[in-house]
Amino acid sequence: GAVVSQHPSRVICKSGTSVKIECRSLDFQATTMFWYRQFPKQSLMLMATSNEGSKATYEQGVEKDKFLINHASLTLSTLTVTSAHPEDSSFYICSAPGLAGGNYNEQFFGPGTRLTVL
Amino acid sequence: AQKVTQAQTEISVVEKEDVTLDCVYETRDTTYYLFWYKQPPSGELVFLIRRNSFDEQNEISGRYSWNFQKSTSSFNFTITASQVVDSAVYFCALSEALDGYQKVTFGTGTKLQVIP
Description:
heterodimer, A: mainly beta, 7-stranded mixed sheet, B: 6-stranded mixed sheet, 4-stranded antiparallel sheet, 0% helix, globular
């Protein structure tokens, strides 16, 4: 199947700094990518839909100015956590829809990025 | 709005026992997809199965089997002869069409512990 990579896999930063997480579709193009956040022992919650060439669509309750999303190309979406605080510590996962059975009904997930804010 | 309910938060079984993980979903869409994912301690999601709403055939893959019942909006997952390596969190998920692409909603997950 298609491969989605994330970088970095793990990051530790000080409170107040900004952190950028990259999500790449390695062998297919993705005009849409999704960003999820998963707190410890909880489910994955959709944060936003990243759209190539246009603004991201954020889910209710997600701060647009805090979680900046840029979908610069057909294979790359970035999530920047601005002025990170300890409560932003979480596991961030991206996904991209890909072809399966003739429709874009398969989600390919990245391996995730574990962010720890001290 | 769509919703996925996994009522079992944690399950412990002894190795070689069979175990069924329950999943109940809600959606207004007539066309949708259901998924099961495994998340081991490493965190990476492992895709197990995708089922579309028009295919109610049960599926078996090795020790894994899935029972899709549209009448009860359930998509249950059974592991036969469980093994320690099956210990993980399992998520049931539902996707809806969004401008031609699928937006996925996850259940809260069931943590399975297989005791040797």
